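Quick one: structure for this chain?
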Amino acid sequence: MIGWRCLCLLFAFLANVECIMWTLKANTQKCLKEELQGNVPVIGEFEVSEAMGQKVDCVVRDSKGHILYQREDITKGKLTFNTESYDTYEICFISRVSQNVRGIGQDVSLITKHGVETKNYEMLGEAAQLKPIEKELKRLEDLSNEIVQDFALMRKREEEMRDTNESTNSRVLYFSVFSMCCLLGLATWQVLYLRRYFKAKKLIE
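Got it. Here's what it folds into:
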């Protein structure tokens, strides 16, 4: 029983749910970045405190600048998008203040979910007529599969980094050998040149 509880706590700790709050200064922007795999659903809930003469826009972009979500003059709502490929995605909140208005900071809160946590297991359980324990087991199964995929991706990236390091080490070794050969050749040429020079000056026999 204790082991089962520990396992549930572990999966709850690894759940892909994030909540953040901050104060957005006038005429500035704040971007939150995260690396995600391809074809991953993302859901976010945001709320922005209101201020007279000020507006806040929300934009979601990938590293190439493609806009996946955009909304102007937000106060409270939801954002949804699907990742296209493995990339770094950013959610930006941009403050805009009207002219002749002294801007103030606005409180922004954002809750994001991605992957398994975006699924509604209550509706899935009702549709499949699952018991509460079966719904929880289904959620943990999906979560464990997602964790396995994350570890597989991390292992792939580790292999790519190792291959890159090995390739770099080989190039450094070849360059070092080439440099040593050049130095030895230059030293040999200098010795022969000086020998001929001293012979020409009759300083040595």
